[in-house]
Amino acid sequence: MPKKIAAKKKIDINRIVALVRDIKEREQVKKQLEAEIKEAQDEIKQAMTDNHLEEMCADVFTIRYKPVVSNRFDTATFKADNHNLYEMYLRESSSMKFTIT
């Protein structure tokens, strides 16, 4: 039995343009907010660093700024040293990517 193909809906280009403009506008607002948040975080970090603090309480908040050590697998070195083994464990993956330029 042949597969039924769904009818394509007509694209309202004006709606698409309005959505893209809205997205771009919100992305700009997001960038600005992220910059302001980073600036505030940097000021707190600097105050803690200047006072040699890893933790402090401010009102109902506990703020921590301390080193975190972790171990990570060095893929690049492993690939260079064990190329065939590296290739054996590669697996293909796929995803969808949405961009607006």
Task: Describe the structure in brief.
This protein has 101 residues and is mainly alpha-helical.
Defining key terms:
two-stranded antiparallel sheet, 8% strand, mainly alpha, 101 residues
Structure description:
The protein is mainly alpha-helical and 101 residues long. 50% of the residues lie in helices and 8% in strands. It has helices at residues 13-50, 75-81, 83-88, and strands spanning 55-58, 61-64. The protein has a two-stranded antiparallel ribbon. It starts with 12 loop residues before the first helix and ends in a 13-residue tail after the last helix.
Write the layout of secondary structure elements.
Layout: H1 13-50, E1 55-58, E2 61-64, H2 75-81, H3 83-88
Antiparallel strand pairs: 1-2
User: Structural class, judged by helices and strands?
Assistant: mainly alpha
Describe the sheet with the most strands. Answer: 2 strands, antiparallel
Helical residue percent? Answer: 40-55%
The Rg value, from CA coordinates, equals 25 Å
**Spatial order of the strands in the main sheet?**
1-2
Oligomerization status of the protein chains: single chain
List the secondary-structure elements in sequence, H or E. HEEHH
